Structure formats: structure tokens, C-alpha cells
Amino acid sequence: MSAASCLKSEDQFLCSICLDVFTDPVSTPCGHNFCKNCINEHWNSNDQYPCPLCKKVFYTRPELHINTLLNEVVSHSSEQQADKPGEVPCDVCTGTKLKALKSCLVCLTSYCETHLEPHLTALGLKRHQLIDPVENLEDRMCMKHDKPLELFCKTDQTYVCVLCSVLDHKTHEFVPLKEEYEGKKAELGKTEAEIQEMIQKRRLKIQEIKHSVDLSEEAADREKAKGVQVFTALKESVERSLNELIKTIEEKQRTTEKQAEDFIKELEQEISELKKRSSEVEKLSHSEDHLHLLQNFPSLKAAPPTKDWTEVSVCPPSYEGTVGKAVAQLEDTLSKQMKKKHFKDKLKNVQQYAVDVTLDPDTAHPQLTLSKNKKQVHHGDVRKKLPDNPKRFTRYPNVLSAQSLSSGRFYFEVQVKEKTDWTLGVVRESINRKGEIRLCPQNGYWCIWLRNGNEYEALIGYLRNLPLKSQPQKVGVFVDYEKGLVSFYDVDVAALIFSFTGCSFTEKLYPYFCPGPNHGGTNSAPLIIHPVNHTA
């Protein structure tokens, strides 16, 4: 379609009176179309009724009819193609401006779809540079030479035309706008990638913060539950102590009341006897029978035998110190409960560092027998023939784990149930495994042990007795390499047995196990590396 035919096609939708797109188009009897309002105003100013196009005169005012087809076409065209606020209008359209589809940097004109067609079909126009529609195309012209800004002066960091490059900037470095555009576009791509990376990092940070909030909420819920549990126990302890205090006071009061009741009963009985004697004496004293009075006088002349009540009294019980004693007992109970809870929490905290420990058969003494899963060890009476190696213990029935620690923290648990002799702990890699062994930190041993069924000890430069209230059935071992700490716990009662503190670790540490001699079967139970069941 040619440009002329495009314009002609567009003119078919224009009113010849207002020269704008039809509004409520109507048809005259001569077949021409006008805006309803335009033709009515035109005829209102004349005595006769001529057609503005063909000049045909109507002597009576014609009846106008809405051109339905034209009205629909115009309405659809206006809805679909009229430019909206913020959009670039076509520079060629007359009347209602349609939305521009492209702008030509050569013609410095913006075109709608219809008016753009010559640039897509005509050979000469196809060479023009088209871009997405922009306003103020005149800003893309050199104000000095009235030429398109086609070059970028890298020296002055400005946009110039061809004449500028040979006149005003002839010694400067130039590149075509497209080349600078590509470079800057690549930089923008890099910037966009960096921005996206920053966005991603911030999204991850948001997730991290939200996760922290979730963890905080979980910790808060756990702490609240723990607080409810503790304070409920405290409340119950206080109520029990109060009930015991009231019971003690009431028992003392009941004892006092019982004593008083017994005294009163005894006194009332004596009063009754005395009243009876008084009545007999009075009756005798009024007797006129001389012989009768003289005969009964010996038995009534003295008062009946009674108790001496001079020193008898009911002393109110002393309650002094009762409340203080009850409070002291309550404090002692609460202190024990809090101490137990403290160690329970501490044990729970170290249990999170639990590691899977297995026994290393290459280190086991020849009289030790290991289970297939390398989780159990016991002492046998038969010495097996095993290849000697630098790692194996040859004098004492010891065995090390296959795992070691050279940093951080680790924890493991060992069942010692039904044993009368055992040693547990950690050792450094370079310990003596062949000769005499002294289980002290100076020699690289941080251990505790049981001897003779009830003697718990540790060597810390001197022999330290470990008095325990109950015999551990399961022992937990915790190591903090950086802090130089080795702690032993009675797992079942969540109590600390003993801790080595201020240790200096410079080598790998290995868990150490000694099930002790068999002792004719009295110590035949194995040491068992037990899976950690986290304390509730």
C-alpha cells in the first residue's frame, strides 16, 4: 500500500466539516457522511440545507440516519489505535493521533503501523535506522551542524555528528554510537547481573533472618515450656512445703488440745468426787443422830485423795523457727532441683555434638574381643596371636577408637552396666602403648575409672577420689578441644561426674576404652558404645 493510499484510507474516517475522526457519524440522502453534531450546526446556520461536499440543496430539512457500520469501524479504530497518555503519537496522522510503532532517526519522524509501511517496503527508506518510538527526535540532531548525532567522542564523553568529528573534535577519539551502545549495553548487562546477585543475596539474607526468627521462636517456645515446667514444679514444691508446715503446726496444736482435754477430764472427775464427798459431809453435819455421826466421821473427816495440780499447766507449743526451717528445707529442695536441671540442660547441650564412634581392632590388646560392629569390647582369658604394630597395646587391655579429634567438640556414650572394673576417657595420639602406663594428663591420658565395684577415681597429678551418690550405668564423655575441656557425665541421672579443665591439646585425641580384667567372670560384661538418646 502506497503512502497516498494510506492517507486516502485514513481520510475515509474523517468528517469534512471538523476534519477529525467521526463522532456519531450520520448519512445524508445524497450519500455523504458527517458528524451528527457538525451537520446539524451547519444546517442551523442556513435557510436551506446544502450538502457541504456535493453542494446539493435540500429545501426541506432531511432526516438523518446513523451510519451503523461506519460508527462501529470508527469506534473500533479509536479504541485499538489511538495513542494513550505516555505513548508517542504518530507525526503523520491528522486528526486523532494513532500510537507510533517506530521512530526513524533519519527522517526524525515517528510512524504508526499504517504510516510506517513505506519504511518497510520502499528500498530507499529501508536503509533508514528505526528505533522504538521516542519523543523529541530533534534532540538527536546536532544543534550546530543540523546533522544526526551518529558518533560518540570518547575524549569529551559526548555525542557528535560527522561534521563535529572533522571540525571541532578532529584530534579526538571517536566510535560509532552503535559501538558505544554495545559497550555500554554490555556494562549494563554486567550491572544488571551484579544487581541481580545483590538482590539474590538480600533475598537469601531475608530467608536467613526469617530462619533466625523461626529458630528464635522455637527456642522461645522451648524456653517457655521449660519455664512452665520448672515453675510448675516450684509451685508444687512450695505447696507441698506449705502443706507440711501447716500439718506440723496443726499436729502441735492437736497435741496441746489433747493434753488440755485430758487434764480437764481428770479435773472434772476429781470435782465430781469432791462434790460427792461435800454432799456426804454436809448431810452428816446436819444429822441429829449422835451415834451415826460419830461412826461415819472417821471416813469423812478428810477430803478424798486428789492430784496436786500446783505444778500442772498446759504450755502453748513453740512455733519459733518452724517457718524458717520449712523455708530452709524448701530452698534446699529447690536448689537440688535447679542443680539437677542445670546439669540436665548442660548434658542436653553437649549431646548435640554426638559422633559415631567405633573401635579400632589394630589398637586392641590381644586379650580383648571386639564385636562385629566394633561397638562392644570385653576381656577374655585367652591371649590371641595377632600381628604386632606400633598402634597396638601389648601390656594393658586397652583399645582406641578409629575416629580422632584435632579441633572442635565431640561427645559419645558408653554403657558400663554390670561391670566392676573399667576405664574411659580420651588420649593423645603419641601415648605409650607398650610399657608401663600411668593414666594422667602429663602422659596424655584424661580418664576416670572404676575399681573394686565402687571406687571411682581420676589421676590429676594425685589420685582424686570421686564420691558418687549412685553407680553410673551409662557414662557420657565430652571434649572441647579449643577450651581444653574433658567432662564425664552420669547419663541416666544427668549429673556431672568429673571434668578436666585447662588442658592443652596439641595432637589428635582418640576415645579410650579399657573393659578391665575379666576377674574370673565377675567383670565379663562388655563396654558398649551406646547410641546417644538426647535427654528430653
Describe, in plain words, how this protein is organized in 3D:
- The chain contains 9 helices and 24 strands.
- The protein is α+β, with helices and mostly antiparallel strands.
- Among the domains are: 1-81, Herpes Virus-1 (2-Layer Sandwich), CATH 3.30.40; 180-300; 361-530, Jelly Rolls (Sandwich).
- β6 (102-104) and β7 form a beta hairpin.
- The longest helix is centred in the middle third of the chain and has 109 residues, at 177-285.
- The relative contact order is 0.06.
Question: What is this structure, in a nutshell?
Answer:
It is built from 9 helices and 24 strands. By secondary structure, it is of the alpha+beta class. Among the domains are: 81 residues, Herpes Virus-1; 121 residues; 170 residues, Jelly Rolls (Sandwich), CATH 2.60.120.920.
Mean pLDDT: 87
Structural class: alpha+beta
Give a short account of the largest sheet. Answer: 7 strands, antiparallel
Report strand order across the widest sheet: 12-13-24-15-20-21-22
CATH architecture of the domain at 361-530: Sandwich
CATH fold-level topology of the domain at 361-530: Jelly Rolls
Shape: elongated
Low-confidence stretches: 1-9
The CATH homology group name of the domain at 361-530: SPRY domain
CATH class of the domain at 361-530: Mainly Beta
Radius of gyration: 56 Å
SSE layout and pairings?
Elements: H1 3-11, E1 25-27, E2 33-35, H2 36-44, E3 49-50, E4 57-58, E5 65-66, H3 68-81, E6 102-104, E7 109-111, H4 113-121, H5 123-126, E8 130-131, E9 151-153, E10 158-160, H6 162-166, E11 174-176, H7 177-285, H8 290-300, H9 322-351, E12 368-370, E13 376-379, E14 399-400, E15 409-415, E16 422-428, E17 445-451, E18 455-459, E19 463-465, E20 474-480, E21 485-490, E22 495-500, E23 509-514, E24 527-530
Antiparallel strand pairs: 1-2, 1-5, 3-4, 6-7, 6-8, 9-10, 9-11, 12-13, 13-24, 14-23, 15-20, 15-24, 16-17, 16-23, 17-18, 18-19, 20-21, 21-22
